[in-house]
Amino acid sequence: MSALDFINPGSGLYAKREPVFPRVVDGRFRRLKWLVMLVCLAVYYITPWIRWDRGQYAPDQAVLVDLANRRFYMFDIEIWPQEFHYVAGLLIMAGIGLFLVTSAVGRAWCGFACPQTVWTDLYQHVERWIDGDRNAQLRLNNAPWSAAKLGRRLGKWSIWLLIAVATGGAWIFYFADAPTLASQFAAGDAPFVAYATVGVLTLTTFTLGGFMREQVCIYMCPWPRIQTAMLDEKSLIVTYRDWRGEPRTQGVKKAASAGGRQGDCIDCNACVAVCPTGVDIRKGPQLGCINCGLCVDACDEVMGRLNRPRGLIDFLNLDDQANERAGARPVPVLKTLLRPRTLIYFAIWSSIGLFMLFTLGERARLAIDSAQDRNPMVVTMSDGEVRNGWTLKLRNMEHRPRRVTLAMAGLPGGRLWSDAMDRRDAARSITLQLAPDATNVLHLYVIAPGGPAGETPFTLTATPLDAVAGSRDARAAARDVKFIRQ
Amino acid sequence: MTDHPAGPKRVDDATGTSLVGHEWDGIEELDTPLPRWWVYIFAACVVFAAGYVVVYPAIPDMAGTAGWTSRGDLAAMLTAETAARAPKLKAIAATPIEALADNPQLMRIAIEGGRAAFKVNCVQCHGAGAAGSRGYPNLNDDDWLWGGDIAAIRTTLIHGIRSPGEDETRFSQMPAFAEILGKGQIRQLVSHVRVISGQDHPSRAAKAGAALFAENCASCHGDAGKGNRALGAPNLTDSIWLYGGTRATLTTTIAKARYGVMPHWETRLDAVTIKMLAAYVHSLGGGEASPAAAPASEPDVGT
């Protein structure tokens, strides 16, 4: 290998990107793609601006990842760090959801909902608006540089950049109060990390959506490999019915007069022209295909004009391909979708979701954690009584201050008091004020008459004083601990 | 792995890509070309790495051109931390020690500051948990030789106990009774102390010891043996012994006396650190209320 190999694309070691200029198309899948894109972008840009009243002790942003205070708010749900298993559960649901979608409809995630696809689609729309459709884009691409070309390019890139800034900008609003951060950002007072995040996301959006596009899917992304492994012979994937289309013929009449069998494919290349990743689906399933179905729309349109049935290119599974090739009738889509594997995935997915919803509704909003003093574990007092100590964490997860009693059950003769009290006020139960939406830390002392060495279990219970009996707020939090004598 | 011998280029039928010649269990490696932008990124990384070595200290004992060092970074962080703490330390300095308890937030800061200072200066004798050991008092309990309110603790910290070179140090000197009393008398005294501390039942020897106690010990330890904090004389009737409450240790204590020493910290630590240490020791569970302070009944637990 010589240095020339490194720079010479003709050597075969390195491939130059072949630019893709997808033609505009209309049809059922294109419309679905518009709808998904609209919903995704709307959710992404608008969500941080939704307000949600939680009272004076919590932020009023509906969706907020408050990293500094370690809280995650999503409408009426608030997640504390120790409840992170809900986030893990969501990730598991996302994983199983991906299994479900992939086994049912192949790489539909890639074709419709992936951010790379959504933003590339948006950028291509801008591109068509500035430069025109496929042919105009090709012409402009091949034209030498001129003032007009430069003007168009700068116009296109400016709009791309605006979208990129808005995209990066929207991201940071999920992590802080959006209106406050927006005014800080404009005034130059926002934290450095906000500017850095917007900068990085602007750069990636601009590059990946404007220039890298299908290269991301083909070379950078691991999902195509993983999803390909999750497909089976029942998954719906975009398929060219070659048994119907072949042999493809460009001059239909000429071929007809020459006699011999001819396929439905007129080799118009519409399927290739509309493909956002530039593949030719007629070559069979391939890594570059993101299952977006735009070639289905393009081919259906052509078949319609030729008065041929639609579906020369269609969502079809491998089993059906074999059956249809052997002369069987097409199987209804619903029958393909509803099969044990997808149903089991759906059952797992939905039961995790239902279980999480149930536990979210049932979870305690008052909790005790305790750590017993280990050095010293036992302190003998001057009157011969024995003292143990605990660091107690009382988590008040309600958005209001609460009054609770902390009481002990068991340990005869035992009394407790906290480090904020006087020992003379030690009692079987004490009353505490808990700060709202906070972990209240106190040091707890428990004293009991001396006795033989050993452990005496007892229970600490925090009972709210400010709730209607029987309501969820009224639930007590308990903790079993051991009193130690030496 | 099988290596196919070099020869005419073989091509994969399905993709039209040429084969490298490596085969694993029938699976052959395609010679798919890398995308060119990938090569550019690689080249850019090499260029970046070269710049990084120059700008950032990547070579031992050579500072980068950006002037960043981990030691400099640490110094800057310490300076920033000190600056951030300054207002709180100033507030602690400005608050009379008896009034610290009225400001729970400041008290908490003082206790944490004291905890840190204790780990550096005090654990050598008093232990990491301040539980002490033989001859070194346990600071977690409610037994105080010289007083357990926060101001008294601070006084002990400032001036020390029997600390040489400190005029105002807390000082008490129990005589070594081996030179004053006979062995039998000391035995009787030990019996009496065992009785008043609830360890033994009354006996004839103890009764004799009581008379000796009134004569020789009560002036400091009090008639009932409950001690005297003004003199640092320990309470002999409680369950806590600095050197031990067995007959043998009590005999040694009476015969030879004990002179434990704690340094005066005034010359080693600044006033705020000593104040924070006092707050920490006071917080360990045995601290006594300042004479004028009223106890809070419903504490507001901080976060």
- Radius of gyration of chain A, CA atoms, in whole angstroms: 33 Å
- How much beta of chain B, percentage-wise? under 5%
- Helix amount of chain B, in percent? 40-55%
Instruction: Label the structural class of chain B.
Output: mainly alpha
Protein architecture, described:
The complex is a heterodimer of chains A (486) and B (303). Chain A is an alpha+beta fold and 486 residues long. Chain A has 18 helices and 15 strands. In chain A, the strands form 4 sheets. In chain A, strands 7, 8, 9, 11 and 13 form a 5-stranded antiparallel β-sheet that branches. Chain A has a 4-stranded antiparallel β-sheet with strand order 12-10-14-15, with no helix packed on it. In chain A, helix 2 (28-46) packs across helix 5, helix 3 packs antiparallel against helix 18 and helix 7 (147-172) crosses helix 9 (192-212). In chain A, 30% of the residues are buried. Chain B is elongated, with a radius of gyration of 36 Å. Chain B has 10 helices and 4 strands, in the order E-E-E-E-H-H-H-H-H-H-H-H-H-H. Chain B has 303 residues and is mainly alpha-helical. The interface between A and B is large, with 45 and 38 residues.
